[in-house]
Amino acid sequence: MAAPVKAYLETERGAKIPCLFNPSKLQLAKSNSWSSGNSKGRNAPDLVFDGGGSGSLSLELVFDTTDTGKAVTDHTNKLTALMSIDTQLSDYDSATNNGRPQWVKFHWGDLHTFKSVITSMDLTFTYFSSAGMPLRANVSLTLTQYEPEANWGPQNPTSGTPSPHRLHQVQKGETLDRISAQHYKDSTKWRIIAEANGISDPLAIKPGSLLAIPRLRD
Asked: Do 140 and 169 lie in a common domain?
């Protein structure tokens, strides 16, 4: 079985920020502006197209580092930095300290979105070590189209795109075959979960860690 394709954000300066877990859903939105003329003596007015609004993409991401014991902020700080002015961009004016954050693109397999800026980010830390180090975070992002493009939304959204994943938090005493039986009604499919999460030793899963559970293709 081929390894699942991981989603990532591409920044304007060419960096890649990988998603530790693929999002379970993506929400795309776009609006157009229309104005109406005089409808006196008519059932309805003619509408005149005033222009299109920016497209937007909303997604939920989960970052979890309980398997490594490192702070999850190593990943989330890369996202928060994308909402700050980047002094390395070519249009930054050092004389006036006038600039902007980088634009980004979201990629997942054959799905590629428009250039967009992060207009909203909601970051929640949900799990901590005994020393208070954040190990898990949920991030809600809204990406808003940065410039006009011929295709404002994803291209080929179903071609080669893996089935979305669910998440499972490992409980004390659980094993991969038991988790497989719970989600697939078949304990022998545990290798699918192991491959999706890069697990080489099925006995080494730790309580509290999050596992991606691929949805089986029909």
From this structure: no
